[in-house]
Amino acid sequence: IKGLNSNEESRLSMAIMEMEKIAAAVMVPIVSKEKLLGVITLSDKTSKEMFTQEDTDTLGLLARQTALVIENIYLYEEILDMKNYQEDIFRNMASAVVSVDKAGMVISWNNMAERFFELKANAPASKLYCEVFSGDAQFLALIKEAFERGEISHRECVVKRKKETMYLSVSAAMLKDSKQGNQGLLLVINDITPIKKLEGKLRQSDKLAALGTMAAGMAHEIKNPLSSIKVLSQLLKGRFDDEEYRKRYLEIMPKEISRMDRIVESMLGYAKASDLKVEEFDLKELISEALEFMKDQFTSRGIKVLLRTKGDLMVSADMQKLFQVFLNLLQNAAGAMEGGGELAVEASRIKVGDEDLAEIVIADNGCGI
């Protein structure tokens, strides 16, 4: 064949030699996208007749059909590999993933979901989500909300297990098909238990750090009742027969002792977590006590305090914890007004719907937190 270079001539010669080895009369290439996939090889006809144009056309059609079949096999293998790859990712994700169809049937879950919700690996899918997650009321409520709203983002719930309590962050979005039709719900769940534990430790650390600030005010607060007790006790010996003095002594002494007891209890209660102790008390007195506790700090920093109360402020609450809340806010205000300023504290009754509540507003004109 004319027009071939030496390399092409060499390759052609090798092809002819191979055809001679297998006694091939005709070789038809199987080509797809300009890539040779194989060759259809035929020997001479048994009739010893020559191959006609019709024969070669038929062989060409067969080669094209064979190429199409081979190409489809490659595509299927590629799709299968991609499907297996995606399933591997799904199974081994660090987040738990659960899919629920629009009828509320659980379709699939991954390995992490099995751990979070104690699901069995080989359990049949296609069960209603209310059956699958029947033991986790908060998670069930979030799925219901996600169906109603169409999505939820970073909502927290608690699931309790025999050995641990887990805190989970749940996000969900509707699954859409190519025509934007609703196909169900996809839930992504993350374990935030370590974060919650760390937050608890940080809160406790902040509380303990604040004890240093409280101790300074506490020392002064305890000195006041101690001074009163000391003076009364020193005078008691010489004025024991004075009935008016004894009456005054018996009135003041228990009050001052109770005052010191409250100060010590406030410090102990601040340092450790405790259950709520609800009791009825006057909010005005509690706010006044917190302001008195901070009096030295306010005076040393040139802070003017304005206290305004209105109406009956009897409330039912945990007095000790509320005292800590007020103390924290007042300490923040003092810290924001190093160069002095004005602190306004207002307390009044307000109506919120059908509820009659007490509202406390603490404001300062400092630099901000």
Topology:
Layout: H1 6-21, E1 26-32, E2 35-42, H2 53-91, E3 96-101, E4 105-109, H3 111-117, E5 127-128, H4 129-132, H5 137-149, E6 151-160, E7 165-176, E8 182-191, H6 193-236, H7 243-271, E9 278-282, H8 283-293, H9 295-300, E10 303-309, E11 314-318, H10 319-336, E12 341-352, E13 355-364
Parallel strand pairs: 10-12
Antiparallel strand pairs: 1-2, 3-4, 3-8, 4-5, 6-7, 7-8, 9-11, 12-13
Helix pairs in contact: 6-7, 7-10, 8-10
Structure characterization notes:
The protein is α+β, with helices and mostly antiparallel strands. Helix content is 51%, strand content 27%. The protein has 10 helices and 13 strands. It has helices spanning 6-21, 53-91, 111-117, 129-132, 137-149, 193-236, 243-271, 283-293, 295-300, 319-336; strands at 26-32, 35-42, 96-101, 105-109, 127-128, 151-160, 165-176, 182-191, 278-282, 303-309, 314-318, 341-352, 355-364. It has a 6-stranded antiparallel sheet, sandwiched between helices. The chain starts with 5 loop residues before the first helix and ends in a 5-residue tail after the last strand. The mean pLDDT is 82.
